[in-house]
Amino acid sequence: MLENVLRQKLEKKNILLMTHIVLGYPGFDASARIIEAMVRAGVDLMELQIPFSEPIADGPVILRANQEALSRGATVKRCMEFGAEVSRAFDIPFLYMTYCNIPFKYGMDRFAGDASRAGIRGIILPDLPPEEGREYLDAMARHALAPIFIFAPTTSLERMGAIASLAGGFVYCVARKGVTGAETSFSRELDDYLARCRTATDLPLAVGFGVKDRADVDFLKGKADIAVIGTQTIRIIEEKGVDAVGDFIAGLR
Q: Nearest Cα to 112, choosing from 128, 89, 91, 131?
């Protein structure tokens, strides 16, 4: 189970690093090089985004990466194949992240089954409300995948508890309202929110949306279990190239 793997890692580290890449951006060969560099730099788990034309939780940087990957011919089939390739090659947990229309059109059970056979450990669908997730949850259970759900600063403690009762692996806590890539204030307000998240669940807590440097990761130690780095990695690739990724990730600890 994904949760057990994470807890074993947390026995040795005070916070884990999870990175996020858009599959097929800037190409699948580049995606493979990026993943290899990240694993060598010490990433603990990784979120592989299957591109979608309308990624509503994502800001302009990741939106652009989605559109570029699609324009270069990225397909769900190729992403599934790629997920299997990297799961065989690297000994860290990989997750698929995408939007609900993708597995809906693909077939929810088929999507979960193919992901499981590819070696994927969990799936994140940020636009799927838990109340509408019965088919998703059943498919995840059948194929032994972790259903990753999301807390937000606006989520009440009561609703957090309801969400946590359905979640597996970990809970993804978005650090602020809005989309990925914008500035986040790592402050007392975030402290209070994460304390509320901790009250609502015993699952590991992952924090994303705005984590961009070592100071942010250090701030989260003792408050969360996983720091999620997404948009900033794409900025590094765009500004300095794929070869700069490893040094960036290594510098986060």
A: 128
Distance CA 48, CA 117 (A): 16
DSSP 187-241: SHHHHHHHHHHHHH-SS-EEEESS--SHHHHHHHBTTBSEEEE-HHHHHHHHHH-
- Beta partners for residue 21, in sequence order: 48
Please give the Cα distance from 31 to 177 (Å, whole number). 29
Angle between helices 231-240 and 28-40 (to 10 degrees): 110
Token pair in block for residue 153: 């600063």
* Contact status, residue 34 vs residue 243, Cβ threshold 8 Å: no
Question: What would the DSSP string read from start to end of 19-50?
Answer: EEEETTSS-HHHHHHHHHHHHHTT--EEEEEP
Residues catalogued as catalytic: 47, 58
Q: Say whether pTM exceeds 0.90.
A: yes
Give CA 202 to chain center in angstroms. Answer: 19
The residues pairing with 96 across neighbouring beta strands, listed in sequence order, are 48, 123
Q: Do 209 and 180 contact (CB within 8 A), yes or no?
A: yes
The C-alpha atoms of residue 67 and residue 130 are separated, in whole angstroms, by: 27
pLDDT, one tens digit per residue, over 2-27 is 999 999 999 999 999 999 999 999 99
